[in-house]
UniProtKB/TrEMBL annotation:
<dbReference type="GO" id="GO:0042597">
    <property type="term" value="C:periplasmic space"/>
</dbReference>
<feature type="domain" description="Solute-binding protein family 5">
    <location>
        <begin position="72"/>
        <end position="410"/>
    </location>
</feature>
<dbReference type="InterPro" id="IPR000914">
    <property type="entry name" value="SBP_5_dom"/>
</dbReference>
<dbReference type="Pfam" id="PF00496">
    <property type="entry name" value="SBP_bac_5"/>
</dbReference>
<dbReference type="GO" id="GO:1904680">
    <property type="term" value="F:peptide transmembrane transporter activity"/>
</dbReference>
<dbReference type="GO" id="GO:0015833">
    <property type="term" value="P:peptide transport"/>
</dbReference>
<dbReference type="InterPro" id="IPR039424">
    <property type="entry name" value="SBP_5"/>
</dbReference>
<dbReference type="InterPro" id="IPR030678">
    <property type="entry name" value="Peptide/Ni-bd"/>
</dbReference>
<dbReference type="GO" id="GO:0043190">
    <property type="term" value="C:ATP-binding cassette (ABC) transporter complex"/>
</dbReference>
<keyword id="KW-0732">Signal</keyword>
<feature type="signal peptide">
    <location>
        <begin position="1"/>
        <end position="23"/>
    </location>
</feature>
<protein>
    <submittedName>
        <fullName>Peptide/nickel transport system substrate-binding protein</fullName>
    </submittedName>
</protein>
Length: 490
């Protein structure tokens, strides 16, 4: 795949011409889509790029989730638990991959096996030892420890099933022409564009649109302008600052399970001291951020889990025994975030002032996400502002808490390793779905909050732009679906 320079990408985002073909109403019925973030990992499904493949309806999973987060059939027509450690999934018959090969239990087992050996491993498999074996028209998935959420795990876009031709000997994965969805990915131009055509051999209802023309436009003002000018039919993640400038008929605001959190480095630097972490917590006025940066289009956080999960607010109890704050007295810290989400640099500026008012000396670092993630995960900053989806992977928050806050978590920006947190997360992971699991999840949330390793500030709402010519685009709080087989232009 070819990659255009960052200069070319910036020009594309700002000028738009050359990113989209002129005109909003093409006669060929192709949907023009402006997306927030370019691919980070060559569109490998084992990374967060998987959610692009899912939102384009090109790669599919064995299981899907309904609006309530319950498991529903996908490429598997059904499943049953055959032992404490094993589940059997019946593979949907009559499905072909975009390369013409058949969906079989062996192909499913191949994808799942490769996911377990990928480096890094898909986030949904953090802490999970899993094997997959074909068994006639079914695949048997076995876990080392009893796992009540195996069906929900297999709904993660990071475990999308691709043809065997997608997987290379060097470990790279190429999703071009290897999915099963109603749209076939036919070309990717590095970090600038992607092209998908309708797949007429799809096993389900034929796609209403003839194809999708994707442009990656990190600049939020440019994405909003693309809707106003007719250069795009759909724009994801319209910045709050741009929402008021769009025709109300072209925007949708959906509460989402996404939390804007300040992660504090508990392993190195000043925030090894919990008293200083407590001082940072007390310094933050989240209501000021919601009013001033998000223009009221967000909710002040009471915990890691927000109003998109109503049971969290209903079951949460006030925390006791919080650590006492230590006066910062000029302690120098580095506060970092990324520019891909337009609000985050503004949040960083407000936080910098609030922390300085509390006595910290703050240096700010802002880069594009692709150029800052590695340093953030390596613990090179004292504090990091992250906009984080909390039920992105399985529809269940345990995967998020496990990934972000346990000793072995693969996305542990706070560098947290706390025995009580790990124990609480293990308990939640082992509890059957239902009210008891939800209570265990809230206990794990409380354990994390007591460390002050993460300070949840607000819960975001997704703002999506749709031209008035668009029919039936998905408005998905989990950001898994966007253009479906039924999405079309009038």
């Amino acid at each position: 795949m070819r990659h255009r320079s960052s200069t070319a990408l910036a020009a594309c985002a700002l000028l738009l011409t050359g990113c989209f073909a002129p005109g909003a109403e093409p006669s060929d019925g192709r949907i023009k889509l402006a997306m927030l973030q370019p691919p980070r990992s060559g569109l490998t499904p084992f990374s967060d790029d998987a959610f692009k493949l899912s939102r384009w309806s090109t790669a599919e999973t064995l299981v899907t989730l309904d609006a309530a987060g319950d498991a529903r059939p996908g490429l598997a027509t059904g499943w049953r638990r055959i032992s404490q450690h094993a589940w059997e999934f019946t593979v949907r018959p009559g499905v072909t991959f975009h390369d013409g090969t058949a969906l079989t239990s062996a192909a499913v087992a191949n994808t799942l096996t490769r996911a377990t050996t990928a480096s890094p491993k898909p986030r949904i498999l953090d802490g999970v030892e899993l094997t997959a074996e074909p068994a006639g028209d079914a695949v048997v998935v076995t876990t080392a420890a009893p796992d009540p959420l195996v069906p929900q795990r297999l709904s993660s876009p990071q475990l999308a099933i691709l043809a065997e031709s997608a997987y290379r000997a060097d470990g790279e994965v190429d999703p071009v022409g290897t999915g099963t969805g109603p749209f076939r990915l036919v070309a990717v131009n590095g970090t600038t564009t992607a092209t998908l055509d309708r797949h007429d051999g799809y096993w389900g209802p034929k796609a209403a649109a003839e194809g999708i023309d994707v442009s990656f436009v990190p600049d939020g003002t440019a994405r909003a302008a693309a809707i106003r000018s007719g250069e795009a039919h759909i724009a994801e993640a319209v910045p709050v600052s741009q929402a008021a400038l769009l025709d109300r008929a072209t925007i949708t605001e959906v509460p989402m399970p996404r939390t804007n959190t300040l992660y504090l480095n508990t392993k190195t630097g000043p925030f090894r001291d919990q008293g200083l972490r407590a001082a940072a917590r007390e310094a933050i006025d989240a209501a000021e951020i919601v009013r001033g940066v998000y223009e009221g289009r967000a909710d002040v956080a009471q915990g890691l889990l927000g109003p998109a999960l109503p049971w969290a607010a209903a079951g949460r109890t006030p925390l006791a025994d919080r650590a006492e704050a230590t006066a910062p007295a000029g302690v120098a810290i580095t506060l970092a975030t990324f520019s891909d989400r337009a609000e985050l640099p503004e949040v960083a500026s407000v936080l910098q002032q609030q922390l300085q008012d509390a006595g910290f000396t703050v240096t700010q670092v802002v880069r594009e996400y692709a150029h800052i993630e590695e340093d953030a995960l390596a613990g090179k900053f004292d504090a990091f502002i992250l906009s984080r989806a909390t039920v992105l992977d399985s529809g269940d928050p345990v995967a998020y808490v496990q990934s972000d806050f346990t000793c072995a978590g693969s996305f542990n920006i706070a560098q947290l390793c706390d025995g009580e947190v790990d124990a609480a997360v293990r308990t939640a992971a082992a509890t059957e779905a239902g009210d008891q699991r939800r209570a265990a999840i809230l206990a794990a949330e409380a354990a994390v909050l007591r460390t002050d390793a993460a300070i949840p500030m607000l819960h975001e709402r997704v703002i999506q732009g749709d031209a008035t010519s668009v029919v039936d685009s998905a408005k998905d709080p989990r950001e898994r679906t966007l253009i479906t087989a039924s999405t079309r232009l009038r």
